[in-house]
Amino acid sequence: MGTRPILFFDSGIGGLSVVKEARVLLPEHPYVYVADDAAFPYGGWEEDALRERLVGLFGRLIDRFDPAVIVIACNTASTLAIAELRAAYPGQLFVGTVPAIKPAAERTRSGIVSVLATPGTVERQYTRDLISTYGSQCHVRLVGSQNLAALAEQYMREGFVDEKQVREEIAPCFIDMDGRHTDIVVLACTHYPFLVNRMRKVAPWPVDWIDPAEAIARRAMALVTPPAGEVMDHVDYAYFTSGEPPASLRRLMRGFGFVTSTEKLLVAEAVLPNSLRQIARNVPEALTPAAK
């Protein structure tokens, strides 16, 4: 029996920022990447509908891949559904991605921190509870960007992004208050680190950009038993729920070490709890990996 893979999940390609760190820590481990691009972006979804979609979809992924750990490399999915996922699949280990408010509050000197996230993460009570618990001694501004995740996807696929748009999206993060300035911006979406150099370029003043990718990867690695001895040859696959990723995206995934397959992942309702079978019917019938 081969080593059980670590499965990374995101609505798009943002989770690759975490995969990159994981490969540094445990390069020989098998990985699977699943992008729910058919539903991207998650910001337009009604919460209950998205939560149900995620619970049904994860049932399929667990049945098919038997992952050692699932890394939900998506702040929106984590803050919305990780409790329900753990309840539905108690035998599965999950690592979530939540805004890094605690380290930001510990590191700020000015006492002014901004959290740059998607609108869904900004609106979630989970995020506000984190601020209440860890950031009560700071002024924390929540900034919900409508377009930055899509801009990051465009940049990763095409190598180009409109810096004016980036500037407009991050502008609300920068506060001048009573002679004090924002000194830390939390990147609370795994897509955003791919644009951080552009953000630095167009920011009105220097700040510390907190990228939680390494911490997430370290948490996942701590839950995994490294393979003993020589690792069996394996192929790391990337799957897309749309089944139709463009050529630019297929090239990008190859650059991150993920290859393709013609396999379709069909639903197996027998492995789902009765209460989740109807939910599963609302998830696309196949998760088709990127075509060669």
TrEMBL record:
<keyword id="KW-0413">Isomerase</keyword>
<dbReference type="InterPro" id="IPR015942">
    <property type="entry name" value="Asp/Glu/hydantoin_racemase"/>
</dbReference>
<dbReference type="InterPro" id="IPR001920">
    <property type="entry name" value="Asp/Glu_race"/>
</dbReference>
<keyword id="KW-0133">Cell shape</keyword>
<dbReference type="InterPro" id="IPR033134">
    <property type="entry name" value="Asp/Glu_racemase_AS_2"/>
</dbReference>
<dbReference type="Pfam" id="PF01177">
    <property type="entry name" value="Asp_Glu_race"/>
</dbReference>
<dbReference type="GO" id="GO:0008881">
    <property type="term" value="F:glutamate racemase activity"/>
</dbReference>
<comment type="function">
    <text>Provides the (R)-glutamate required for cell wall biosynthesis.</text>
</comment>
<feature type="binding site">
    <location>
        <begin position="42"/>
        <end position="43"/>
    </location>
    <ligand>
        <name>substrate</name>
    </ligand>
</feature>
<feature type="active site" description="Proton donor/acceptor">
    <location>
        <position position="74"/>
    </location>
</feature>
<keyword id="KW-0573">Peptidoglycan synthesis</keyword>
<feature type="active site" description="Proton donor/acceptor">
    <location>
        <position position="189"/>
    </location>
</feature>
<comment type="pathway">
    <text>Cell wall biogenesis; peptidoglycan biosynthesis.</text>
</comment>
<keyword id="KW-0961">Cell wall biogenesis/degradation</keyword>
<protein>
    <recommendedName>
        <fullName>Glutamate racemase</fullName>
        <ecNumber>5.1.1.3</ecNumber>
    </recommendedName>
</protein>
<feature type="binding site">
    <location>
        <begin position="10"/>
        <end position="11"/>
    </location>
    <ligand>
        <name>substrate</name>
    </ligand>
</feature>
<dbReference type="GO" id="GO:0009252">
    <property type="term" value="P:peptidoglycan biosynthetic process"/>
</dbReference>
<feature type="binding site">
    <location>
        <begin position="75"/>
        <end position="76"/>
    </location>
    <ligand>
        <name>substrate</name>
    </ligand>
</feature>
<dbReference type="InterPro" id="IPR018187">
    <property type="entry name" value="Asp/Glu_racemase_AS_1"/>
</dbReference>
<dbReference type="GO" id="GO:0008360">
    <property type="term" value="P:regulation of cell shape"/>
</dbReference>
<dbReference type="GO" id="GO:0071555">
    <property type="term" value="P:cell wall organization"/>
</dbReference>
<feature type="binding site">
    <location>
        <begin position="190"/>
        <end position="191"/>
    </location>
    <ligand>
        <name>substrate</name>
    </ligand>
</feature>
<dbReference type="InterPro" id="IPR004391">
    <property type="entry name" value="Glu_race"/>
</dbReference>
<comment type="similarity">
    <text>Belongs to the aspartate/glutamate racemases family.</text>
</comment>
